Amino acid sequence: MSTNPTLYCPIRGQLKVKAKTKDGLSFSEEKRRIDCLKYLLDKKYPKTHIKVESTLIRFGNSGRNSFRTDIVVFRKPVAEVEDLSLDEQREQIVLIAEIKRDNKEAEKAKKTQVHAAMGFLPDLKALGVYWDDIEQKVFYRELKGTKYRIKEAPISYLPEHGADIDVKKLRYENLRVTPNLVRLFENIEDAIHTYIADVSIRYELLLQILLVKVYDEGLNRHTNGTMIIQDFTLFESISDDEVLQIFAETLKKSLNRHKKYLPKEVVEKFHIEGAALREVSKYISPVKLLESNPEVMQEFYMYFAKQLYKWDLAQYFTPYEVVDFIVQIVNPQFGELIKDPACGSADFLISAYRRSVKNDPKVGDRVYGADNSINAVQISVLNMLLNGDGKSNIIQEDSLLAVKKHENNFDVMLCNPPFGVKITEKRQAVLANFELGKGLPSQQTGILFAELVVRQAKAGGRIAIIVPNGYLGNRNSNYYQLRRWLLQHTRVAAIIGFPRFTFKKSGADVSASVLILEKRKQPLLNPDDTEEYPVYVNLLDKVGWDIGNKKAQPIYRKNENDGTNILNTDNEPILDADFQEVLSELYHAPAIHAFPWLVTGVEQANVTDGWSISIKEITKNADFTLDPKRFCKKYLTLIETIKAHDFCSLLDVCDLMPQGWKGKKNSSTYRYVEISNVNDMAYECQELKGWQLPSRAKHRAQKGDIFIGSIWSSINKWFMAGADAKDENLIVTNGFYRLRIKEGKEHLLPDLILALSSEYYRIQMRALATGSDGLAEIPEEDLKFILIPIIEDPEIRTRTLEYITQMESETVFFRSSTQKMIAERSKDLYVPERKSNFSQV
After folding, report:
1. Which residues have a Cβ under 8 Å from the Cβ of 667 and sit 6 or more positions away?
2. Homologous superfamily (CATH) for 314-542+611-626
């Protein structure tokens, strides 16, 4: 299937071309050319004067050879010059541009193509442009007596149409964001390689340069001041010694501001020549670092810190798309205090800072973080600094030990705590400070952090905490007490589930959800004493990257007709993710009236048909389950529509038979069914001696017994024991529930069989599963909630009975045969479309 999108060129219209190169990662030259054309149009170069792919000159035998350039801008409209000779056309050229897809051979392209092209142009004021993924430059001719030389400057110096180039000092507004900071700093490293051979010293120097750049941008960001670091290759009146002095003085000022927050001592003196720093200035002066895309900045920081500190940082990071999504929901406001008590690499704090800094330059004073790992603190501080926070309130602190120290202090608490059954707290001095830890020999750290974030929030404060789904649904006493405590102390604004493996690229194979909570002014004695209010519940299906691959390659939205990438107005592919759709639904849900802070400052927020449930739906459940699968629109709407017709429950029809069989270590031959040998409704047996049967062989089947998968990953597997079970030698593995039709309920067998073959059965099973999605189990006691629609069409009932007869006599695979009947039976039912990603229901 094709993955080439239709790019939109402002000069040539729709283009069916490759947006990306063969590696699928970097954009093609055509995409870069369109970016350049848009920039020229923004500078008011007339669209009618621009020609794409033009011949400048022909030479050789009969003009067989030619010199071409990617873009030409004429003094007159193209229609008026295209019939002229090439010599006459060159007289009318005011600008040429050369485009490359990447920066690999930039210097060669500048000299052999841009410089050469400009040499053919009679007009000494004609300009050249070079454009790739890292550098965008303008070239102009500087006269010295009777001679000229071609000079290179940042693209910001490109004058508007009809004006002369004016090389003056850059201001903050002249800087441009680069799509690849890693490549930019690799270029800088290459530039200083001849001056410093030692790699470790080079990276110390890069840190110094980075601090200079961060200080320079931070100083001028809100005032649009003149930048300290200019492209000094353009200002020959400034000597190399003066360039060195400018860098040194700026570094000193940066260290005076940031030194006490920095994770590692930085040498205060540059041990490099001014000539090298002049070359460096060419790369960093035109770049806007602090407003880089979060993904670009995260990738750069992981690269930079790995080189500088030799740390593998993947374990510290929460995917930035998830972080930004959560921060948008809690919606920090001007002047509010924000904290992450287990900040890791400060991803939540960075998102909150970046979201607020444009309207609140001093937001850095109100962003706080803590972590008990000095490595994490080092990571966080430098990361915050690179994102523009000159005053990082991040400290090394044992948040659990200091829980009382910061109680009721913060407007917004954000946290993705360390969780897992093996990550526990055993110190009695800590456990004694927690209601969920008192009197216990140990407690999961994640559960204690869930209590901590609530206690450290102010009354009315907001809390966003990522928790594993086991916390939200498992009936274990620890998890039950956590849910009860949260419902007593908070109001639940939203519960949103993430697909399994969402956090895999940071090393966590876990199914998780985010709880959005508001702290109560006074806790309830009992959760069911709560007032009525709506709760928003949803499940993300797509997150924009391959969750089955640790490299987390991006996945883009496709045109259903031809498989091409769908592009936005900037010709950028759009990540195939649900974040914005879920936010849009939230902003149109009844929950926004109960929690108006959700939409403070949000445009077009209004209640229409957004999904919410009543908090009473949660508190009336004896287990106080908060699992979003139980309350999502898909599941509850399905249940509602099934109940609008005749139905029964699974355990109205069947008895649940115990496992019990321990196996016989003898020489008798058994027919053994392993879970991998069940394909939807069909099964295969392997003959094994009694002594060969594995310990997981737990069921001894009778003819007519029905086996259904009991865990998330196998709920599509079921079968009825047929002729193979006639001598009671059919043995089935665990991982199945064994059902037997109740006496007197045999007439409901067709209804059961057809239901087990359907998507509406699988939706219910997934919704009732608790724990990590892949291994989540449907509890025995919840099978009573599985609803079976009664077949109303006599013809379908007759045909189903025919298949049942075949199943009883032999092993039969008949899924394709039942699909039409299921469709006919389901025409009056709400049966949601099958998800593209079955890591979530």
Report:
1. 689, 690, 691
2. Vaccinia Virus protein VP39 (3.40.50.150)
